[in-house]
Amino acid sequence: MRMWNDFLAPYKQAVVELKVKLKGLRHQYKLEDLHAPVEFVTGRVKPLASIYDKTLEKNIPFEPSGELAAEVPDIAGLRIMCQFVDDIESVVGMLRQRNDMKIVEERDYIAHKKQSGYRSYHIIIEYPVETIRGEKTVLAEIQIRTLAMNFWASIEHSLNYKYQGELPDVIRQRLEGAAEAAFRLDEEMSLIRDEIHEAQSYFSSFKETEKRDIQDTSWKGEPE
To answer: Which of 108, 120, 104 has the alpha carbon at shortest distance from 69?
Structure first.
């Protein structure tokens, strides 16, 4: 187990660092009073059971190795959620311009959806982490998708796990229909994005005003 802990340590460090950096993008947009294409960010290191399944799928030894690191590029995984489909392109553009990571592969499952209906944008990056033994570069996968796409993908993942990848035809057909419905929802929301931005900006301003009023009221009656 010590060998696995040592092998996975740089991946865990990469996930922690990348989550902070990617969440920071949202904060920077907010400081400029601009629409933030990043809604929220999650991350994880693939559990050993999932790594084992991948080694069976790729017919490679289940052991810490350079071969495993190269053949399973999503041991470290980040997911960026966006409100609108157009936001995905903005996030991809920002990632391409960064100097702290190198993009080695892009897969556009939005323009070219999977047969199941799955939509998302996948980027494989090389990311350097500093360890006590020097710099270690690891591969990580960043998935960028809308909230609707993520909801669908989470349900599909659970159903595939339940049926071990062999979905009944009626479930598969309904999932495909649900994927199209989710994408139509994204398209409809994109058509009124300006109205949505304005409403969200108004609501945020209202909350800040309400907060200040409460703070001001709390001082009433206290000695100066």
So the answer is: 104
* CA distance linking residue 142 with residue 52, whole number of Å: 21
pLDDT tens digit sequence for 153-206: 999 999 988 888 888 999 999 999 999 999 999 999 988 877 877 776 776 666
Exposure string of 76-109, with b = 16+ CB inside 10 Å and e = fewer, is bbbbbbbbbbebbebbbeebeeeeebeeeeeeeb
pLDDT confidence of 31, banded at 50, 70, 90?
confident
Residue identified by tokens 């470290």 is 76
The H-or-E segment that residue 137 falls in is: strand 134-146
Of these residues, 17, 39, 141, 222, which one is catalytic? 141
Has 141 been annotated as catalytic? Answer: yes
| Predicted pLDDT at 30 | 83
For 207, other C-beta atoms within 10 Å of its C-beta total 10
CA-CA-CA-CA dihedral for 102, 104, 109, 115, to nearest 10: -150
- CA 87 to CA 81: how far, in whole Å? 9
Q: Under a CB-based contact definition with an 8 Å cutoff, are residues 126 and 101 in contact?
A: yes
Q: CB–CB of 186/85 below 8 Å?
A: yes
Residue 27: the pLDDT is 87
